[in-house]
Amino acid sequence: MQALLEAARRKRSPVVVGLDPDPARIPAEVREGVSEPEAVRRFCLGILEAVREEVAAVKLQAACFERLGPPGMEVYAELIRTARELGLPAIADVKRGDIGTTAAAYAEAHLRVYGALAVTVNPYMGADAIEPFLREARALGRGGGAFVLVATSNPSAEAIQGAGDPPLVERVAGLVAALGRPGPGGYSDAGAVVGVTRPARGRRVRELLPEALFLAPGYGAQGGGARDVLPLLDRRGGGVLVNSSRGILYAYEGAGGDYRDAARAAARGMRDELLAAGVGV
Amino acid sequence: MQALLEAARRKRSPVVVGLDPDPARIPAEVREGVSEPEAVRRFCLGILEAVREEVAAVKLQAACFERLGPPGMEVYAELIRTARELGLPAIADVKRGDIGTTAAAYAEAHLRVYGALAVTVNPYMGADAIEPFLREARALGRGGGAFVLVATSNPSAEAIQGAGDPPLVERVAGLVAALGRPGPGGYSDAGAVVGVTRPARGRRVRELLPEALFLAPGYGAQGGGARDVLPLLDRRGGGVLVNSSRGILYAYEGAGGDYRDAARAAARGMRDELLAAGVGV
Q1: According to its UniProt record, which residues of this chain constitute the active site (chains A, B) (predicted)?
Q2: What is the pLDDT of residue A221?
């Protein structure tokens, strides 16, 4: 995950912009007269260009491209490529969870064919579902890795992830600790998705994963604020990338004006808020 | 899931053929001189045509198409369309697990855009990750649904799915029971993926889900046999679709001759073996 941390330090920003494009919320001047995939393509390219100096990385929500059929996957490929050219490493938010040759095929697809630096992975099938992604990231040697879903930010997660004593999240965190290997900067190549909406849960996961990079959803639209990130920080006061999707993409809806200017201002505001609250990079 | 059951009864077969194409194992005469996506396309079309009378349905392993980039998704679309024309409902084995609008986008992608009848879904994020798939299947009204991963057949699954007391699988089974709605034939639109490699686990899941259609991996290549399916049967002696992928696709490697003939013979043999063991449709 070294490449993500380096990007965060270079920009002095722990912010990840999430590309979850919803065609209905793309400004009319971008989407009129063109196909849905083309509207999504133009909109997302505009966002990447606008926020490139304000954010550490970009997270692409694969579902939003998958629902556009094969042309959507062309757009997905182009966005990952363009992001890299702009100095923005891409995290493929695919949450895949399968085993053996199937997991290896997903890892090959998103890390090698589409060229993301890191992916999100679902641990329900156990170590078999995680290892192939780490193997592919190691073979590529680009300082990437996999973020394993540990404690997600959505309301119904607790019924599954909080089950048992100790709760399932702790068992999954143990798996992440066991499977990861430390990179040159000290962080493991197995990171964790840990939402900002349950601080006590987050603090406990950090105790179990002192060397993991966290990817934290739930900021902004899902109700979390800058102070909610603090329990997730590591002993160096960093180690957390904070994602915002709708809060940046659709900032223009409240602010008016050009969507790119609004997105840049929103990303910058979020970065400043996080840094001011004590979230380091 | 009514449409899957009807297909099983029409063919008198509980067999599902899994399309997990591995380009290296496609017969040389099919793959020579053409691109990988084209080789996969030809091979899979040949399989569909060969086994159409022997199997109830087809399960497409999305990863194998995703790793071929956008052209692979064109092949995936064509195979689902062709399968339907051949009277084979398609199960999109995507194991997606995300929430809210993202899950809705995945559901739209695979059930509506690509046109599968059912999908596999990962429950790690809770009810939020399952409901959007059921909603989309209901809106489409084609008698399809979602198979939720409950007890998978892989070696490392137990470390996660067996955690807690009662174990996590039972909690997930409870979720499936709560979210599903009965269809016209009595089966719920929320089915379950239950491997054949842990019979005691499977029997317990059946107790908790008396009205669910099960999709059972682990037969053949993963070590399960016809008798291992018996604990999964419902009180009518049916309710289980048994998947085989490699055992059918690559039957020609052992048997020699045309891969289509070998696949047909393997599918027929599996069907006869299951029926003889008492697996009803």
Answers
A1: 95
A2: 67
Name the residue with tokens 């997990």. Answer: B20
Q: Does B73 touch chain A (CB under 8 A)?
A: yes
Residue B223, phi-psi category: left (phi > 0), alpha (psi -120 to 50), beta (remainder): left
Task: Give the integer Cα–Cα distance in Å for A1 and A140.
Answer: 12
Going from N- to C-terminal start, the domains of chain B cover 2-277
Q: Does A221 touch chain B (CB under 8 A)?
A: no
Burial of residue B9 (number of CB atoms within 10 Å: 0-12, 13-18, 19+)? middle
- Using CA coordinates, name the residue in chain A closest to B94: A96
C-alpha dihedral sign at A124, A126, A129, A133? positive
Question: Residue A42 contacts by C-beta under 8 Å, 6 or more apart in sequence?
Answer: A30, A34
Class of B2-277 in CATH = alpha beta
Read off the pLDDT of residues A131-170 as tens digits, 9 standing for 90 and up.
Answer: 999 999 999 999 999 999 999 988 899 999 999 999 999 9
Would you state the pLDDT for residue B221? 67
Specify the DSSP class assigned to residue A114: S
Q: Do A63 and B164 touch (CB under 8 A)?
A: no
- Which residue, B134, B171, B131, is CA-closest to A159? B171
Whose CA is closest to A204, among A176, A226, A173, A229?
A173
> Which parts of chain A are beta strand (E)?
15-19, 57-61, 90-96, 118-121, 145-151, 190-194, 214-216, 240-244
What are residue B243's DSSP bridge partners? Answer: B16
Instruction: Name residues whose C-beta falls within 8 Å of residue B31's C-beta, 6 or more positions apart in sequence.
Output: B23, B39, B43
Calculate the alpha carbon distances from B167 to A166, B18, B151 in Å: 12, 29, 11
- Give me the catalytic one of B9, B84, B95, B203: B95
Structure tokens, A154 = 């959505």
Model ipTM value: 0.95
**pLDDT of A255 strictly over 80:** no
pLDDT digits (tens, 9 = 90+) for B19-38: 999 999 999 999 999 999 99
| Segment A74-112, tens digit of pLDDT | 999 999 999 999 999 999 999 999 998 999 999 999 999
Gyration radius (Cα) of chain A, Å: 18
- Distance of alpha carbon B157 from alpha carbon B152, whole angstroms: 6
- Buried (b) or exposed (e) across B94-116, using 16+ Cβ within 10 A? bbbbbbbbbbbbbbbbbbebbbb
Q: Where are the beta strands (DSSP E) in B20-144?
A: 57-61, 90-96, 118-121
